[in-house]
Model the fold of this input.
Amino acid sequence: MIDYLKIQKLINESSEVFITAHKNIDLDALGSVIGIYYIVNNLGKNAHIIIEDEELNNEVKRALSTIKKTDNITSRKYEDIKEIIDDKSLLVITDTNKSTRIQSENLLTIKNKIVIDHHVETGDFNEEKTYKYVDITSSSATEIVLDLVNELNIYIPKEASTIMLAGIYIDTNGFLIKTTEKTHIYTSMLYKFGADNKEAQYLLKQNFNEFKRRQKITLATEIYDEFAIATSDSEYSSTELAKACDVLLTFNNIEASFTIAKLDDNLVGISARSLGNIDVEKIMKKFNGGGHKTDAAAQIIDKKVDEVKEELLNILGGLR
Ligand SMILES: [Mn+2]
Done:
């Protein structure tokens, strides 16, 4: 259970609060950041949202322009706020537990830090944290933040609630994966705040070319008994591989899915998902990767996509 009293105390004792999330910010990260923003504001402190991304995806752009218009919230860069950082500043990081993935690593100089995340811990966040809460059973970072919102009895305005709703929608693939009773309880809380599902749909409109790219690797899928394996010789990002992998899990008879493609010239990425009967973390560990039983990944240096697929098939063959 999240220690909301400790978080409240840390905010109350701070001078100002800086809130950030992972690079290439998405709607879940932004939704959780906005939720924290309102918590901090309600507790009577100044909050600053730090986003350094040079290029924002369209959903995030739309969301940011909405809350700028309606709630007068703007994001800032480290350069703008570095002068006001002092010993009592508090940094809140959401939706990532990798210090290298944070929007601005400069922010890590802030001594007091809270980390709130729903990803499996990777051990690459070695900075000292004042308080850390990682819950991998939560659908999204936004869901965890709503737990706080609920405990601390905070009100979230309509437009911000819609962004938070869209954030949960993104991380659960439309309430298909990682969704629990709690996810729905907090979603209904967002509706009570005035979240608008139709507006969320507009926020979530996707880029057709990106969709086509994901479809392309999805169409290259081959089925081996209860396993779906998709490969491509084109370059994909690990996010794209993860998204395509999520989708493969939705097909008949599939218990585990894998997407494999080049991430870079001599780096192959593999993403793995399971409904829970197959331990994909164990499988990814054989590639020196890691993750969770149902959600794992690995990166392999100096191997070809086909070689990685062969290795994977051997491992899967050994499972029976
Ligand atoms: Mn997330």
Remarks:
- The pocket of manganese (II) ion is lined by residues 28, 95, 118, 140-141, 171 (CB under 6 Å).
- The longest strand covers residues 227-235.
- The chain is about 40% helix and 20% strand.
